[in-house]
Give the backbone structure.
Amino acid sequence: MDRPYGATLELGEHGTTHPFAISAISHGLGWRYWKSIRATVSSWMLKYPKGFHKREDHERPRVQIEDYRNGYPRYSALVASHDSFHICRRFSNLRVHLLLLKQDRLSILEQRLERINREETIPLRLGSSRSDNNVERNSVLSEIDDALADYDALIERNHRILNLETARPRNVLSLQNWIKGNGCVAREETAYLARSEELASIADTDDTVMTWLETIVEDSLTRLRRCLRMDRHLDISRDPNVHIPTQSSITRLARVLMTPFIITLLLAPVVICNCLTTLAARLCAIVIATTVFMAILSGSTKAKTVELVVAGATYTTVLVVFIASTNTP
């Protein structure tokens, strides 16, 4: 038996019908309600046209450095293109100057407070803060509170700035070469790059050995691109003299090169000890291997002294256990 049209709509067999119309017909409402519902549906269809829910995958072309106007817009685009270009001055002299001035102001306020306490004629004011109605002392304490807050804030700011890593000369030279080649920023406003002793890098850098490997990989890719005369520069710049590879690809390649070095460093002593026949020779091999391991670890990483001791002890323990578990012929 055929079902009525309203039941069919309720079961959702006509999926293109608006839910408002389904509810109205299924409950047998009058024609006047249908007219109002039809108007609602029409406005809804105008507001959400057909296919509005479909995603439009139109990729926007990447804006390159040369697309920005000469001056600070283009220079800012260059600095923002790579984390290593985020370089700034620490202004250490100015920070120390301000710190000394604030410190001296606190010293003066301290002396004033000590003088007020010595000249106090009512001992009760010194023994009870609730009974202390000395206006001058309360005023000095309020000034000390404000001066200490300002002093502490400056110390915390200086601590954060002084802990920033020193900018690498390679990155500073890259910015200087770009500025000389473009000349779009005033010399006085880019003279900060000449203060190499004060330049700091905002972005954190990796371990020393990883930084060295990344430099080798970057230089190799640059030479390869020049030899092959590749015109594509990773869509960052159209300038043939600008080579800014993505940091992720450089890091991946550097880690791939780092893997065989780590494997050799860890397993070479095991192979050597396995080839030696006397216990004395194996002990000498362990001493040499541990010394080389600690030297490489301390020179190529930023590990603390405690971390170096733990790593060295663990490495030595593994080698000693290996010798103890191997029968000497």
Summary: The beta strands are 87-89, 165-166, 199-201.
